[in-house]
Structures are given as C-alpha cells and as structure tokens.
Amino acid sequence: MIVMKFGGSSVESAKAIQRVASIVRDHSARKPAVVVSAMGKTTDRLLRIARLSAAGKQQAAGLELARLRQFHLTEAAYLARAAQAIRLDRDVCALFDELDRVLREVAASASLTPRLSDAVLSFGERLSSLIVTAGFRQAGIDAVHLDARDAIVTDGRHTQAAPLFVETNALLRRKVSGAQVTVMGGFIGATEDGLTTTLGRGGSDYTAAIVGAALSADEIQIWTDVDGMLTCDPRVVSGAHTLRSVSFAEAEQMAKSGAKVLHPATVLPAVKQRIPIVIRNSRNPNAAGTRIANENPRDGAVLSIACRTGLALLQLVPRNTPVTADFGSEIWDAFQQAGVEFDLIATSRKDLSVVVDAASLTPEFLHRLGALAEVEVEENRALLTLVGQNASRNPSNLTRATQRLCKTPGGAILAWCSDSRFAFVLAAQSLYAAAEALHHEFFAQPDPDLFVPNRASVTVMERASVRSASIVALHSIQ
Ligand code: ADP
Ligand code: ASP
Ligand code: MG
After folding, report:
1. pLDDT tens-digit profile of 364-419?
2. Could you tell me the end-to-end alpha-carbon distance of the chain, in angstroms, rounded to an integer?
3. What residues are paired with 69 via a beta bridge?
4. Contact residues of ligand 2, CB 6 A cut-off
5. 199 and 161 in contact (C-beta within 8 Å)?
6. Distance separating alpha carbons of residues 461 and 438, to the nearest angstrom
7. Any idea what the Cα angle at residue 9 is, between residues 90 and 459, rounded to 5°?
C-alpha cells in the first residue's frame, strides 16, 4: 500500500478536492491511505480567531468565524449530493458549533493556552478530512473516514506533541483498512486521556510518515503545490529547478534549514524502514516529482539553497575571560532550561555567536543570558543554507559562495559549515538578492541528471543584480 498526503493548497476548494479525487483514483491499485491538511489557510485563520477571542475581541472573532463556516459549508455543498450532502452539512455545522464552544472557553480564560490552541486548530483537519471523504465518495471512491485522534496517540506536549509509536502503530494497523481508502486528517492526535494535541505547524507531512511506517507502506507521497523539492524556494528565487532525487539526510537537512515543502520530522519514520518519500504537485500530476530515498545522487555537489527568516544573531562575550568550555556549557544549560533551540553556533576566543528564532528571545531568557555574558542581539537576520552531502568538503563550493556573497548588497555576516551544509547569516533585507546570486552561481547550468531544469530560469537569473558588500567574519566549526 501507499500513503498519499495532500497539503492545504491541494484541498483548498471543492475543485481542488475533485482534482485530488482523480489523482487518488489513478492510484487505487496501490491501495492508498490518504492524509489531508486543513483546507487552504484554515489553520492560520483559526489561529487568528482564537487570538481575537483571547484578546476579548468577540465581535471580530465572530465575524471571522462566520466567514470560515460559510466557506466550509459552500465548498462541502458543491462536493456532495442528496442524502450525503445533508449528512455532510449537518456534520460540518456540528463541528462549527463545537468550535464555538471551545472559543467561548478561550474568551472566558482570556488566554490561548497551548491546550486550547490545539483544541481550536484541530478543527481545520477534522473538517477537511470529513469533506474530502464525502468528495471521494461522490467521485466513486470507496472512502472511509478515520478521526486521527482515534489513531495517533501522543504525549501531552501541546502544540509540539510527539507520537507514542507503540500505541499509535497498533491502532493504525487495526483501523486503517486495506479494502477501502481511509481518509484522515494530518497534524492532530490525542493523548491517552483523550486530550486533543497537534504535532507542530506543517505536521501533516509527519502524520503521513507515521502512517506509512506503521503500515510498512511501499511509498509515502507528499502532494503539494510545487513540482518537488526545488533548488530554492520559488517564492524567493525565480527559475528554481526540480531535484530528481535526494538522500534522506539531505532532505532532512533542507527541511531543517527552512525548505517548508517538507516537515523536518517526516524523514525519520521513513528512513527507519527505508520507505521512499516522493514529493509531487497536485496541480501538475504528470511531473515525476522528487524522490527521497537512501541513495545520494552526487556526493560533493550543492543540491539546494534553503532560506530561513525571523532570526536573531546573539553575540555572547564572557566577562573578563576568553571563551572556555565551561562558559560554553553554562550557555548551553541556559538554552536547554529555557527550551530555546538554536540553529548554529560559532565560536572564537572572544565570543560565541548563536542564531536563534527571534520569537524565542523573551525578556526572561535574555536576562538569564545577561547574568552569564555580555549579550548583543542583532535582529532581522536570515539564514541561507547550501545543502548537499559533503558539499562543504569541496573547497571550490565555499570559495564560490563567499566570493559571490562578497559582491552582493549586504553580504554575509557569518558563515558556518558541516558535512552536509554550509550556512550564511545575513541581514534579512539582503536575503532575496543573496539567494538569487547564489542560485545563479550554482544552478545557472543545472546538470540534467540531477535536476529537471526550469526553462525560464537562465534568462531571469542573468538579470539578478550583483553588487559589493563584505563578509565581516568567517568562522568554521565542525
Ligand atoms: P502544503 O500546504 O502542501 O503542505 P507548504 O506550503 O507547506 O505546502 O509547502 C510548499 C511550499 O514550500 C512551496 O509552495 C514553496 O514556496 C515552499 N518551499 C520552500 N523551500 C522549498 C524548496 N526547496 N522546494 C520546494 N518548495 C519549497
Ligand atoms: N494545517 C496544519 C498547518 O497549517 C498542518 C499542515 O498543513 O501540515 O500547520
Ligand atoms: Mg506543509
């Protein structure tokens, strides 16, 4: 069997769901189990409504909620007919009534606790999975709905819950039938006590991998709005090429470095059982997509550029002493205790530089760091990461990248490398120009064995402006 996961844009409307039904029908011989995200931007909309409710803005929340309800009812009505339409309409209304009650709880407590946030956000996938099941049935697919909360058992870490694999695997094996097409929502689960949880934003990909691993699937397909994993986010550079294949480790590195097309946790369950993951485009189902599997297509080559924004660069200078191992471990403890994750860390005798999500810099955390070191915070930072197994061991890659960035407005502030990547910290406003310049440097003439070339790219990239700037410091630690 296979698992087919369809993201928000693939199920954003009744029309999109009909497209998905035809893709699933084409794969019926492979006994698909289907995982869906919330429709379109529903999760963002739910979050906005919940925040308005918590802030006491009931009227604005009510208005947004009514719009979201109408959107789901309209799309649902377009998909189902006769008795099924009546049942679906009733089920969608019942879910919105329940959501209304949860939002009252949010308003009453005047805060959006992680538990309530999960309860609210879960409605996106609960609604979409019901609507998609009805759409499939209307399209002649023998589909059956499974509430993901009855199969994905997690710990109680609301908003970032981790699956309990033994319990989850047993339930999935019992509840996902090979005879019918099971449709379930991604992203959501429940604790053993029945409290609704979520796996973290973008977590539907992870659900697909959990299901695939539990059922020893032949393949996990992630259907999205691009042709596969690309050489860069097409929203950042124009003319990115599609990778034909990447290794699990490279895909994971790309995802961790900001390639949103795949949730970083997706790879782990798949790699354990060597189940290939294929990224495909639901709007262009004839494209082969990108295959993520064990094999590495080209050791030493740069395969992709990933971008992350919303970061801050912390420079931590110990008072009166050089950087020592003790200083490093005190800083490490402070990060651990505050639960703050960092992307990379570079050190010199004088200071320690750490890149963190700007949102994690609470006053309490900065105060804690301030007790250990002089802290300088540079906000509005972005990270550009070049990914490829052993790409950083090929000295010409690093030289080409740094030289290219030296000529780009804003340049880079800090560079860092390990076996499978090298990363540059930049001012956020330089990100687009820097990404375009690096993309041109590495992918102006894409190797057709590795990439499906984007025909429009070469001319567009020629236009990318390249001006001067400087790299202030270049640290490298393994
Ligand atoms: P879905 O709703 O299907 O889960 P996402 O929005 O989560 O889709 O992920 C798809 C988006 O990921 C693309 O539209 C693209 O903008 C972004 N993206 C970022 N980096 C990459 C990359 N290297 N390759 C492909 N897409 C990327
Ligand atoms: N709907 C969830 C989100 O927007 C999960 C997902 O789409 O993967 O984060
Ligand atoms: Mg996604």
Report:
1. 999 999 998 999 999 999 999 999 998 888 889 989 999 998 888 877 777 777 77
2. 41
3. none
4. 7-8, 37-38, 43, 124, 186-187, 201-204
5. yes
6. 10
7. 165
Tell how far the Cα of 309 is from the centroid of ligand 1, in angstroms.
15
Encode 117-138: b = buried (16+ Cβ within 10 Å), e = exposed. bbbbbbbbbbbbbbbbbbbbbb
The neighbouring-strand residues paired with 34 are 4, 183
Structure-block tokens of residue 299: 């050791």
Tell me how far apart the alpha carbons of residues 136 and 284 are, in angstroms, rounded to a whole number: 19
Q: Which residues contact 65 (CB under 8 A, 6 or more apart)?
A: 49, 96, 99, 100, 103
235: which residues sit within 8 A by CB, 6+ positions away?
none
Give the pLDDT confidence of 418-437 residue by residue, as tens digits. 778 889 999 999 999 999 99
- Cα gap 352→331, rounded to integer Å: 9
Say if CB 60 and CB 172 are below 8 A apart. Answer: no
Q: Per-residue pLDDT averaged across 354-371, rounded?
A: 92
Q: Which of 444, 448, 478, 442 is nearest to 461 (CA)?
A: 444
**Residue 124 CA, closest ligand 2 atom number:** 1
Flag whether pLDDT at 329 surpasses 80: yes
pLDDT higher than 60, residue 464: no
Look at the block and give the residue holding tokens 């080209």: 298
Amino acid at 47: L
Alpha carbon of 234 to ligand 2 centroid (Å) = 20
Q: Is the pLDDT of residue 465 over 70?
A: no
Which range, of 177-181, 212-216, 417-421, averages the lowest pLDDT? 417-421
Quick one: which of 418, 425, 320 has its CA closest to 381? 425
